[in-house]
Specification:
The protein is an alpha/beta fold. The protein has eight helices and seven strands. Helix 1 packs across helix 8 and helix 3 crosses helix 4. Bound molecules: guanosine-5'-triphosphate (GTP) and magnesium ion.
Length: about 200
């Protein structure tokens, strides 16, 4: 059971991508996929639709899965492991979570369930790189998210020019030279296949 997180700042496209990835990973039912969404506000995803497609979704609120509700997260992982035997769990942390802390929480959740840790996929919104990086407090949070990325997905590239997408990627790259960069448009299906491949083969 591999736990992979789709992280990144508020509104960068995490939920939209998670849904696409879960369908692609499920491979028509050959692979069992569950989703855990840690929302601050309301849940934008209809759990019933997910369930009908043979997947499972758990939403947990009331705090951040990497701090105040880490034990709720661990319990959720364990219950999924017992009840549903997923091959993959995709986790959407809140937009203000830091990926290495989410990885720690995922590792802790593996005390009772057999888990492996997947890549930290971090989305960086190509439509507002300056806004994300240049502000004082916000900039620090976004750069720490980018630093923790195993895969840096420059998101919503369908909404910007090629030059703008490249510039956004270069700006994010300054904070993380090791991550693979993917130009992502969930709307246009760009970058999805590569992400699925990375999730499937990832080992750490
Ligand atoms: N142009 C474009 N817009 C996108 C894409 N993916 C998501 N969006 C839009 O971006 C907005 C935010 O998408 P979400 O998937 O809810 O983003 P999120 O990161 O889950 O947001 P929070 O959970 O609130 O932090 C929505 O209006 C989406 O329709 C994309 O590939 N291209
Ligand atoms: Mg979301």
């Amino acid at each position: 059971m591999k736990i992979t997180q789709v992280a990144g700042f508020l509104g960068c496209g995490k939920t939209t991508l998670m849904l696409k990835l879960s369908v692609a990973l499920a491979d028509g039912g050959r692979t069992r996929v569950a989703l855990i969404v840690n929302e601050i506000g309301e849940i934008p995803v209809d759990g019933k639709i997910i369930q009908e497609s043979g997947m499972r979704m758990k939403d947990i609120g009331g705090g951040c899965i990497c701090c105040e509700i880490a034990s709720t997260f661990a319990k959720t992982v364990y219950n999924l492991y017992k009840e549903f035997h997923p091959d993959h769990i995709l986790v959407e942390p809140t937009g203000v979570a830091v990926p290495h802390q989410v990885k720690l929480a995922a590792r802790m959740s593996g005390r009772d369930a057999k888990i492996s840790i997947g890549p930290a996929i971090v989305l960086f919104d190509a439509t507002r790189p300056a806004e994300l990086l240049d502000m004082d407090m916000l900039g620090q949070l976004v750069t720490s998210q980018v630093k923790d990325a195993d895969v840096l997905a420059v998101s919503k590239v369908d909404a910007v020019t090629e030059a703008e997408a490249r510039e956004a990627a270069e700006r994010a790259r300054q904070y993380n030279e090791k991550a693979e960069v993917i130009y992502l448009s969930t709307f246009k299906n760009q970058g999805i296949d590569r992400l699925v491949e990375i999730i499937q083969v990832w080992k750490e």
